[in-house]
């Protein structure tokens, strides 16, 4: 056979070139070369303990793998010949060329099935740690922006309609608590990812008496897989990761959507830096929030990767099937995408400017309607009745085009006697905020507590 494969002994004819292209995965699983080299070093040491690899051969293998790692780092995929299927056979083939027959011993008792399952887990653990650092950096920017704009007032919205006033710091901290849960999901997933499949071989377990406990320690895993069939077929840990990142990306998409709206001419609350905006090819007046629009769009890409792998896995038989080759591109793309999104949106926050006066002046006077309802409720008027009374007052204001907050105590009493004592400054924003100092509320002291909590959490608990 022209392009001799490691498994070609059983075959008479060469693989069709079109299928060979379809079958190869080196173009994307090359990024696992460090993990695969580490695995081969650790595994070769174990084979040495079993007498399968001599001390002399082991030294050649370790030295050869060290050189290969540097070569791949320097030359990339060009170092491999066209017939190489995947990173595992690529490294083994290069090692044979570099050190000779000794390299042919490294695959004894293991399969590409348990090899790739081990490589991808090591890789994902490292990537989750890196993503967690980027997420922590983004959270630190949220806290910094909140703390440095603590008392800025803005309108709050539900259904994209004016609802009640808020502190901007309260608003921006809402993203912290949402993303904090995303961080915790990633951290929790590590106990299901850090399970070592090595030793499972193709599906029934290695034929050699491997010391799996030592392999576990040397490769940095917390646990050893309990069942060789489950070990080689399981990709639920990737699915969980893609789900976790999908949930995170939905929060980031909401962040992006808000910032697109609030930085538009219609709101003009936020000013975005030139660093993360673009211009128009025809309209010189434009400053487009492309970084945020791409963040929003890439959520669809991330969700698509999750759904794609979910579909691949949904009807597979036990144990290993080539379908599982489709897991890596989905995983790698999601990792690359979320890292870029986190980095770019940190820049969005780090260079954000606020139009404080516009934000405060944009509060609709009708946003204080609930204050009137609450006042009547405290005067023992049933809530639903109070709601109805204030609803009529709001309707009267709208129909007669005057501000709700312009109503004096005397005018309010003309609607209902229970408004007696409310005073003319009943719609004072400082009073509104003081009434919301309960834990989790938008009161100034409440938000300070949220920020203090976040700073302590970032200092003490955000380490994976």
Number of domains: 3
User: Judging by the overall fold, what is the CATH architecture of the largest domain?
Assistant: Up-down Bundle
Largest sheet: 2 strands, antiparallel
Could you tell me the radius of gyration in angstroms? 31 Å
In the sheet with the most strands, the strands line up as 1-2
Instruction: Classify the beta-strand content into a percent band.
Output: under 5%
What sort of overall outline do the alpha carbons produce when their principal axes are compared?
elongated
Which structural class do the helices and strands define? mainly alpha
What is the assigned CATH homologous superfamily of the largest domain? Fumarase/aspartase (Central domain)
The total of helices stands at 18
Count all strands and give the number. Answer: 6
Which class of the largest domain in CATH terms?
Answer: Mainly Alpha
Share of helical residues:
55-70%
Q: Could you state the order of secondary-structure elements as H and E?
A: HHHHHHEEHEHEHHEHHEHHHHHH
Poorly predicted segments = none
Instruction: Compute the separation of the termini in Å.
Output: 49 Å
The CATH topology of the largest domain, please?
A: Fumarase C, Chain A, domain 2
- Mean pLDDT across the residues is 94
